[in-house]
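Human: I hope this is not a bother. Would you mind checking the protein record under this note? Thank you for your patience.
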Amino acid sequence: MTHAPVTGAVVIGCGLVGQKRAVALEELSVPVVGLVDTDDARAAELAAALRDAPPIFTDVSSACAADGAELAIVATTHDGLAGSAIAALDAGCHVLIEKPGACDHVQLTEVTEAARRSERVVRIGYNHRFHPAVLEARRLVTSGSFGPLMSLRARYGHGGRLGYESEWRADASRGGGELLDQGSHLVDLVRFFAGDVELEFAELRTDFWDMEVEDNAYLALRIRDGGFAWLHASWTEWKNLFAVEIAMRDARLDVIGLGGSYGPERLVVHAMRPELGPPDTTEQVYDCPDRSWAAELEDVLGEIAGRPSLGARLDDGLAVLTVVDQARRP
């Protein structure tokens, strides 16, 4: 379905991710016409930093009723994602919900029902799909130039910070835990590269932080079209790490880093020779600011206007949360 182009957006949740989304909207010349946050001071700080100093609203429905509000960016904590998205959809807005979209499959199913009622576009904010090294690796995988995918290993982690055990991510009732935090990105990327998966093994551990949720998540996924994936998401990595290694029949692709504290973003291609032995290795370094937030928003705006999209849809979000829910079962 093709919709009219978006001329204005509201941002629900003015924390770090909401700030990144608001700046990206301005970069794309989409006016921010409203902000919502439970912390008035935080909302006021973001409003003052934006070009048009948008008004602050006390609830989602009021913000989505503002003049020009056609797209809602939902960037709350996990426990607020689904409810805010449903309110925005019921008010007639298209919605980009930050990953993982909800705390569990049941909540995201309710968002799906609201999207069906409203006939609005909904996307899940798995912005890592839009990092240039990830996009180029996916192009190489799907081109078939190196043969079929055989296996995938991925690691993603950081070391937390003082007081991490008291933050909302340590609270199970608020959708805390490393599996939903960084692990959901990894599950989505496996599906982005290789298609549907089934959970074969999960180990959720709390090794360091004094909290009720896991600080390490280990998953094994069987890829339905062939191949296997091993994933590790960790809050005990100590040095920030992002690495995805994809073994093809004729090459290995390494995506390393996300920029900033995760190190320069790189794509390393180890192309095998017919006689095997040491491969021919090439490396592309993407030494540029992180535009994944803006690139994902461009993709959402294109989808609303009827153009093809690479972003995560509701069915992608539901598939990730299916894996998460299964991994959490005793």
Q: What stands out?
A: The mean pLDDT is 97. The chain has nine helices and 14 strands.
